[in-house]
Each structure stands twice: as structure tokens, then as C-alpha cells.
Write a structure and sequence with these properties.
Strand content of chain A: 25-35%
Strand order of the largest sheet of chain B: 1-8-7-3-4-5-6-2
Distance between the termini of chain A: 30 Å
Helix content of chain A: 25-40%
Shape of chain A: globular
Oligomer: heterodimer
Number of domains of chain A: 1
Largest interface: A-B, 23 and 25 residues
Helix content of chain B: 40-55%
Structural class of chain B: alpha/beta
Structural class of chain A: alpha+beta
CATH superfamily of chain A: HPr-like
Number of strands of chain B: 16
Strand content of chain B: 5-15%
CATH superfamily of the largest domain in chain B: Phosphoenolpyruvate-binding domains
Strand order of the largest sheet of chain A: 1-4-2-3
Number of helices of chain B: 21
Order of helices and strands of chain A: EHEEHEH
Number of helices of chain A: 3
CATH class of the largest domain in chain B: Alpha Beta
Number of strands of chain A: 4
Chain lengths: ~90, ~550
């Protein structure tokens, strides 16, 4: 299993659009992708599930990735978080 | 005779219209009494409706992309994802398993997700209920085989009254049929309000519920007064018509004046062209600047994005506003003055220490060169916006060559950072400085080698040159009687910058003083930048100059 943490910098939190983008990246992988925040857990491939976390600016997301392509997946997700989840 | 009823709300755009009311029904209340088939039938119906909804959403996305732009179109991309969301579907299926009809199942699921999002106590996510309701109403429409009754072929234009409008509802509306908008809820920043502004039609938000009994009734919508009068009395109607015709007359006169002046090019009688630019303090002034003939934005006071908030704006926030302004100006110059705070302009979260003599203290470029990350965030946002139009950077309160060099170094660093990130920008972005200290005017021959343009801030230049506090009524008269020293400094700067092939503008209050226009032309000023209400007057005056 691979893990990493990311703190949300977008002032609107993990709202529909970034959550949607995150889910579409996650869906390209076979591995199971779980996202934990504030004691709740979401399926990283599902939009509503991610939105339900209610993650706001400053919330720490804890990603747990498990499966055959976890190495590639973790890299892609870190890159996505760093480039796409740190602004609007 | 029916009684006249008045609803008060917040007027969004100006204007007065009268016409019949059309109440817009959203999906709630349409889904009752539907018959329930077998569980398998219902699931199959849902699947068919979902496929149609996905198809429609794709079509809407394309339409929105054309009509409203990329940002609005993204909403439909989200809708597409919601329609495919497994959690949402699982929830709907489980309601069907409990014996609910497909429509009921969709309604219940949308409601429970809506409540869940609202419970998150996050304004942004709560607002996303609209998206969930939107796809729910779409599904129900396909499930009931309802032709969209909101799309019926009315021939008569109407005043649209709605609880609130979802994005996909608004995009489907036929603009030419709508006289005005009224929404029960909503705020000046709600979707409907934004749309009304874009369409330039009167709108009223926050009226509270308006019952269906008023459907088709004649009403007066007065956005200035923030009121909607249904079934008006004769007196109300005639008063309204009087106001309306007065309003239209003023609007018409203004437009004629505008046209007559707009036709005049800002060229002096000897054929010298003067650029007439606008000073604006927020993005909301761009449209009026354009309609008043601004040939560019000569001064964008970038402070507005930092005010009325409690923390620093992000690069993205700054960028999106700068970009939108650049796009709206369609290739015309947009000069963004970097943050000019301190002195009389204070922002709490900057936590600047109180000073004995703030006009001579820690302010403007001095803060920016000290708090470099703050400055670079702004520079990166400006640079990124430069990929969308003709954007220039202008530095305030410059006194020395070193300050320009330091700022240029930071600008270069920002360019490198953006290149690494793969962001586009104009690598030849124009850089200018404000001439608002005597030092910058005296040193203008040296400074001119480093920049593309000068813009004179006459307010500060006057106060620093004459040692006169503009806020002190006992001494302000000294400014009016001592124009000459200021003019000499401007002339000095003008010669210096022209020698280097650059140009000079004036963006302070003096630029709008028509008694000085000739003088500015004489000393070689190329651009006059004034607040929107003065644009036409200055343009007219220039055309009379020698």
C-alpha cells in the first residue's frame, strides 16, 4: 500500500470541480484509492463521496492507494494534487 | 377587481419593465402520483432516463461553452459526473428496491444528498445542492416523459419569476423572451443575478415566495426601487409609466450624447492623437469604461482584490480577475498597478504598524520589495493574465533605479517559475512606473532607460512636491495656485521617456481637469487616464485642443 498526505490550499475546499478532476484521475487506475479527512473516509474514484468529506481549505487529505498499479497511481495523484488542487 | 400586491427585493440591474408574469416551475411537485411498475421496470426506466440525461448534458455543455464560456460550461461537466456517480445511483436503486417509483427514488436521493451537503456547513458545497437538484429534475423530466413546460412556445415576452434558477435552467431560457428576472431567494452574486447583468435586463432577487396564483398576471418590475407590483392600480401604472418614460428619455439622451462624442476621435486639431484610458478600481467598472469609449485601462487599482477580506488572495483568484479584464478589453491595453497600500489605505490582515507619517512611510512598492512573496504572487497572476490580452505592469511610488531593478529581477524570477510550470505569459510584457515622487521626475532620464512608459500620479506628486497635505483644508488651496512646478516635473519626465522611445500618461486627478488638457498636450503627454464619468468630457476636450 502507498500513502501520502496533501493539505488543501484552495479557498473553496474540495468542491465539485476539483473533486471531479481528482475522481477522474483516480478512475484511470485499477488500484483501490481511499481518501481520509477529518475522520471520514471516501472513495477517491467517486465524486459525491469525495464531496461528502466536506474538506475545506487547510484540511489534510490522507490518500491510501492499494493495488497492482499503486506505484504509478501514487505518483500521478501527488502530481495532480500539487498542480491542480492548489489553486482555484 | 384584483388587489394590487407589492414584493420588495434587491434590484440587480437598472431598468423598468412591465409585462405578464411567468412562474418557472422546477421539478419538485411534478413527481407525485406517478405509477409504480415492477422493481425491474423502474430500474430500466431509470437507466433509459439516465442515458438521455447524460446525452442532454453533453449537448448543454457544448451550448454553454459557446454562449457562456468555459467556466460556466464546467458545471455541466460536473453534472455529467454526478449522473454517473455510483453512490448516487446506488442510493436511487436502493429506494427503488424499497418499492418507490423511479421518480420518487430520484427525488428522495437528491433530497438526502442535498441535506448532507447543507449539513457540511460550507457555503460553497451547500450551493452545490443546485447541481444535485438540477440533475434530479433532468432525470425526472425524462422519466415522466414531460416535455419541458418551461420551454413552451410563448410568443409574448414575460417577467420570469422563479424560486431560484439552476445553471442548466438558465442556459435553456430564450433570452429574447425575458423582460426581467425575479427570484424568491438569491443574492446579488447568485447565478440569476450574474446572468441578468450579462444580459443587461432588470432583475430583482430576494423577494420571498411569490405564489402560483400570480401566473400570467400583469406586473410592473422596477429594479431601481427594488419592487415588483402585481396587478397594479391605475395610479401605480401611470406613475410607473411616467418614471419609465423619464428613465428611457434620460437613457436615450445619454446614448445620443455618447454617440456624438464617441464619433469624435481623441485627436487634437493639429492631428496629435491622445490615448483616452480609464482609471478603474474594480472589474465591475470594465463594461462602463468600454461603453464610455475607453481605449484602454490606464490604471487598474489592484487593491480592490485585497480589500474586504480577511486573508491574502491567492494567485488563482488574482489571475482569474485580471484575465477576465484582459479578455473583456479585447487586446486594448490594461495597465495593472501593483499593490499600493499603506499610508491612507490600510488592510487589517497586512498588520502594518501604525506610523507617525504614513505618506512618507512603509507603503506601496516599499512593502512589495520587502514582502517579496506577496509581490511575486501578484506578479505571477499579472503575467499569466498577459497571455489573454495586452497587459502592462506599473510600479507605484518609485524613487530610484535600484527599486526598478529589484522589481525587474523579481519579475524575471516569476517568468522562470511560470515557464517551469508550463504557464503561458507575455515575455515582452510592458513595464512602467508611476511618476509620483519628485525624485522619480528628477531622475527620469535614468529611470526611462529601464521602463516602457511613465504614468504621472498627480495627487501624490503634488503633495510631495509642494509639501502640502491633501487632507488638510487649511493648505489645499496651495495646490491650485502652484500648478507650474508640477507641470515642469511632468515635462521633464515626458522629454526623458520620449528620448528613450517610450510614452507618458497622466492618471491622477489633474488628468480630468479640462482646464489643463491643452497644457498636457503641449508638454507631450500621450495618454490621459480618468475615471469613467470623465472619459467623454476629456475626449471632447482633446478634440478641441490645438
Amino acid at each position: 500500500m502507498k500513502e501520502f498526505k496533501h493539505i488543501i490550499k484552495d479557498k473553496n475546499g474540495l468542491h465539485a470541480r476539483p473533486a471531479g478532476m481528482l475522481a477522474s484521475v483516480a478512475r484511470t487506475f485499477e488500484s483501490e484509492i481511499r481518501v481520509e479527512a477529518k475522520g471520514k473516509e471516501a472513495d477517491g474514484k467517486r465524486l459525491l463521496s469525495l464531496m461528502s468529506l466536506g474538506a475545506k481549505c487547510g484540511t489534510e487529505l490522507h490518500f491510501k492507494i492499494e493495488g497492482n498499479d499503486e506505484d504509478v497511481a501514487v505518483k500521478a495523484l501527488i502530481e495532480h494534487c500539487d498542480t491542480k488542487l492548489n489553486g482555484e | 377587481m384584483t388587489k394590487s400586491v407589492r414584493f420588495d427585493g434587491i434590484g440587480i440591474t437598472n431598468g423598468k419593465v412591465s409585462g405578464k408574469i411567468k412562474i418557472f416551475r422546477s421539478y419538485e411537485g411534478k413527481n407525485k402520483g406517478a405509477c409504480v411498475g415492477s422493481i425491474e421496470d423502474e430500474k430500466q426506466r431509470l437507466e433509459l432516463a439516465r442515458k438521455s440525461a447524460i446525452k442532454e448534458t453533453k449537448a448543454l455543455e457544448e451550448k454553454a461553452l459557446k454562449v457562456l464560456g468555459e467556466k460556466e460550461a464546467q458545471i455541466f461537466e460536473i453534472h455529467g459526473m454526478l449522473l454517473e456517480d455510483e453512490d448516487f445511483l446506488d442510493a436511487v436503486y436502493s429506494e427503488i428496491d424499497k418499492g418507490k417509483s423511479a421518480q420518487e427514488a430520484v427525488t428522495l436521493t437528491a433530497k438526502s444528498y442535498g441535506e448532507m451537503l447543507k449539513a457540511l456547513d460550507d457555503e460553497y458545497l451547500s450551493a452545490r445542492c443546485a447541481d444535485i437538484n438540477d440533475i434530479a429534475s433532468q432525470l425526472i423530466r425524462f422519466l415522466t416523459g414531460d416535455v419541458d413546460e418551461n420551454e413552451e412556445n410563448d410568443t409574448e415576452p414575460y417577467i420570469l419569476v422563479a424560486s431560484d434558477l439552476t445553471p442548466s435552467e438558465t442556459v435553456k431560457l430564450e433570452a429574447s423572451k425575458i423582460l426581467g428576472f425575479v427570484t424568491f431567494g438569491g443574492t446579488p452574486s447568485s447565478h440569476t443575478a450574474i446572468l441578468a447583468r450579462a444580459m443587461g435586463i432588470p432583475a430583482l432577487v430576494g423577494t420571498g415566495t411569490i405564489g402560483e396564483i400570480y401566473e400570467g398576471k400583469y406586473a410592473l418590475l422596477n429594479a431601481e426601487r427594488g419592487e415588483l407590483i402585481i396587478n397594479p392600480t391605475k395610479e401605480q401604472k401611470s406613475e410607473f409609466e411616467k418614471e419609465q418614460s423619464a428613465y428611457n428619455k434620460i437613457a436615450k439622451e445619454h446614448e445620443m450624447y455618447l454617440r456624438s462624442v464617441m464619433k469624435k476621435p481623441a485627436v487634437t486639431r493639429s492631428g496629435h492623437k491622445i490615448m483616452i484610458y480609464a482609471n478603474i478600481g474594480s472589474d465591475s467598472e470594465v463594461a462602463s469604461a468600454i461603453s464610455n469609449g475607453a481605449e484602454g485601462i490606464g490604471l487598474l487599482r489592484s487593491e480592490f482584490l485585497y480589500l474586504s477580506r480577511d486573508k491574502y488572495p491567492s494567485e488563482e483568484e488574482l489571475f482569474s480577475v485580471y484575465r477576465d479584464i484582459a479578455i473583456k478589453m479585447q487586446g486594448k491595453r490594461v495597465i495593472i498597478r501593483t499593490l499600493d497600500i499603506g499610508a491612507d489605505k490600510q488592510i487589517p490582515y497586512f498588520s502594518l504598524p501604525k506610523e507617525e507619517n504614513p505618506a512618507l512611510g512603509y507603503r506601496a512598492i516599499r512593502i512589495c520589495l520587502d514582502r517579496q512573496e506577496l509581490f511575486k504572487t501578484q506578479l505571477r497572476a499579472i503575467l499569466r493574465a498577459s497571455a489573454y490580452g495586452r497587459v502592462s505592469v506599473m510600479l507605484p511610488m518609485i524613487i530610484s533605479l535600484e527599486e526598478i531593478k529589484e522589481a525587474k529581477k523579481l519579475l524575471d524570477e516569476c517568468m522562470t517559475e511560470l515557464s517551469t510550470r508550463g504557464e503561458g505569459y507575455d515575455s515582452k510584457i510592458e513595464l512602467g512606473i508611476m511618476i509620483e515622487t519628485p525624485s522619480s521626475a528628477i531622475m527620469s532620464d535614468t529611470l526611462a532607460r529601464e521602463v516602457d512608459f511613465f504614468s504621472v500620479g498627480t495627487n501624490d506628486l503634488t503633495q510631495y512636491t509642494l509639501a502640502v497635505d491633501r487632507q488638510n483644508p487649511k493648505v489645499t488651496h496651495l495646490c491650485e495656485s502652484n500648478i507650474e512646478p508640477i507641470m515642469r516635473l511632468i515635462k521633464m519626465a515626458s522629454e526623458a521617456i520620449h528620448h528613450q522611445g517610450g510614452w507618458i500618461g497622466v492618471c491622477g486627478e489633474m488628468a480630468a481637469d479640462l482646464s489643463l488638457t491643452q497644457k498636457f498636450v503641449d508638454i507631450g503627454v500621450d495618454e490621459l487616464s480618468v475615471s469613467v464619468p470623465y472619459l467623454l468630457g476629456v475626449r471632447g476636450k482633446v478634440s478641441e485642443c490645438k
